[in-house]
Amino acid sequence: MFRSMKNPIFLVAFAALSLIPLTASAEEHTKLHDQMEAMNDAYKAFRKETDPAKGAALAREAQAQAIKGLSEVPELVKGIKDPAEKVKSEVIYKKMMAKLVVSLCEVEEAFLAGKIDEVEKIVDSLKEQKKEGHEKFVPEE
Q1: Is-contact 27 139, C-beta < 8 A?
Q2: What is the distance, to the nearest Å, from the Cα of residue 15 to the centroid of all Cα atoms in its chain?
């Protein structure tokens, strides 16, 4: 098995393969993507949380990531050529993100009040918000 690694052709081929650029999907790993992943982790955790203090802390973590994401521009929007359409899309994105932040504050508020059943209702609206946002701003693979 290791004999092929001693072959100079194998080493040259391996070195050449390591110089090939990353695929498009790997390049799309942006700051916004990282923030959305962190927010999604907190979201998944607070969906199952029954402890009010822990749930509120997770909701605050999701809020913090959503607030960071508010200042970003999705890659899909960056690619819009028409300046007027691009600005319009940026505004729609910001409004959706601001609504998300408000909803996450409502989750925190419900946890702090010990209203776990209310958290479940808000989570349902968050699922719809996520679906709508992804339809508008996440490119199809």
Answers
A1: no
A2: 34
